[in-house]
Every structure is written in C-alpha cells, then in structure tokens.
Write a structure and sequence with these properties.
- Helix 2 packs across helix 5, helix 2 packs across helix 9 and helix 4 runs antiparallel to helix 5.
- This protein is mostly helical.
- Strand 1, helix 1 and strand 2 form a beta-alpha-beta unit.
- Strands 3-4-5 form a three-stranded mixed β-sheet. The chain has a two-stranded parallel sheet with strand order 1-2.
- It folds into two domains: 79 residues, Rossmann fold (3-Layer(aba) Sandwich); 174 residues, N-(1-d-carboxylethyl)-l-norvaline Dehydrogenase, domain 2 (Orthogonal Bundle).
- Helices cover 52% and strands 6% of the residues.
Length: 259
C-alpha cells in the first residue's frame, strides 16, 4: 500500500504516518509513506452535481526515496530526489499568494478572489508578499530568479481566472492553521527575518488575516476569542510559535496590537 497525504503542509505524509503508526504499528512494515507537493486550484463546487471544475494547470511532485526504485506509475506525476524545494516553492508562492489575496479581500468586503485582485492596492500587496517569499526561495534552493519570477506571476494570473470563481471566505478558512509557525506567512517571514531581509509585506498579510471572522468557520471564531483573551505578545507566541527575542517577534506583536 502506498500512502500519500496530498495536502498543503510541509511533510504532510510524515505527520499522517506518525498518527497511523501510533495506532497500528504493523502498518509501518506493509506500507510506503511518501511526501508530495501538489499544485492545482480547485474552487468551491456545486454540491448538487457530480461535475468538478478544476484549472488546466497542475503539478504533482513525489519524493521517490521511500520507494527504493519501485515507484508506482502515475501519469503526469514526477518523482524527485529532494522534495523540499518543490513543497516550499508551491506553499510560499501559491498558498501564500492565495491567502494574502483572501485576507485583504475579506477585509475590504470583497466576495471573490478574482474581484479582490482587480483592486490595485490588493494586487500590489500580493505582489509584494511574493517578492519577499521569492527572495527566500531563490536564495535557499537556487531556483533561477527569472524563471521563479515567471512562476510567481503565473500564480497570480491563475488566481485571477474568472472561470474559477473562488471566494475570499473559502480561501481564508482555518486562519489559525495559516497563522501557524510552519505555514505560509510565519515560516517564510521568520527565515527572512533571521537573514536580516525585509518582511513588511508578509507581516501586513499576517495582520490582514487577524480580521478574518467568517461566521461559519470555527477557527475564525477561536481566532477572534484568542485576540480578545491574549496580549499581543502571548498571541504571537501561542498561535504563531515566535518567541520573544526572535527578530520577527516585535513586528508580529505590533501587527497584532494595531489590527
């Protein structure tokens, strides 16, 4: 059995494996667990039908290491020796950009992602956030700067696709997870801050996320309760895992205090 968690998280299959093996240790000897990086936008669907709308673009990278040379044949998937660059490129470009659009759009009272990007100030905020993550990705993994710039620009064009009418509320769901230490805002901002690089745009996106208060999202309600109950410093430490003394701590704390 091959198990792959096709989810927007770093090491998602490793996380799943820990839970599975904890409950059923014998599975570790009978299954292969492989991390993957998947990239395809699937907007909210009509629940009354069976058709699923997806975009034309797709990419699925799979870590070949666990298969020991016996990779299953999956059309159009590609196996790589080092998955980390692909995971972080996608997470800190597509997911960071998508969420940035959603939170600025929600804060402005805009319904859809595509409509949000028609606002010049929101488009500029998204582009600025991706310029910061692009610097980190290129510096860490050696991607060609021009090719990566095209990748980031293409991501924004994908968000603007009118045939994929996604909403700011749907993309903004589960804000506490997205404000976490290893996710799309804090992880790249923390690494940039540690390198002495600019993080203003990512911190601004983090601040926009704090306003998210969708009525049918449990995490949104919990987020707002935590903001009422905790001091800014406590919130940054508890929710985002950044401790006092870290070079990102003061700027995140200021974003919470001035939300």
């Amino acid at each position: 059995l091959t198990v792959m968690a096709v989810e927007n998280a770093i090491g998602a299959t490793d996380q799943l494996r820990e839970h599975v093996v904890e409950g059923a240790p014998g599975v570790a000897d009978r299954a292969v667990f492989a991390n993957t990086a998947v990239d395809r936008i699937v907007p909210g669907q009509d629940p009354s039908g069976i058709d699923v709308t997806v975009e034309d673009f797709f990419e699925w990278a799979i870590d070949r290491t666990p298969f020991a040379g016996d990779e299953p044949r999956i059309p159009d998937a590609h196996y790589v020796d080092d998955l980390q660059p692909y995971i972080e490129r996608k997470l800190f470009t597509v997911n960071t950009g998508h969420a940035t659009t959603a939170y600025f759009g929600y804060r402005a009272g805009i319904e859809t992602i595509a409509e949000a990007l028609e606002r010049p100030e929101i488009l500029a905020a998204v582009e600025a956030a991706l310029q910061e993550t692009s610097k980190l990705i290129v510096d860490r993994f050696g991607f060609d700067p021009d090719e990566h710039a095209q990748y980031a620009a293409r991501a924004i064009q994908r968000f603007r696709n009118p045939a994929l009418p996604d909403t700011c509320v749907r993309i903004g769901r589960q804000p506490l997870r997205k404000l976490g230490r290893e996710d799309r805002f804090v992880r790249p901002a923390a690494e940039l801050a540690e390198r002495g690089a600019e993080t203003d745009a990512l911190v601004a996106a983090y601040g926009a996320a704090l306003v998210f208060d969708a009525s049918d999202d449990e995490q949104a309600a919990e987020l707002q309760q935590l903001l009422r109950d905790l001091s800014p410093a406590e919130f940054v430490t508890q929710v985002s895992g950044i401790e006092q003394g870290h070079p990102l701590f003061d700027t995140l704390t200021a974003a919470v205090a001035t939300r």
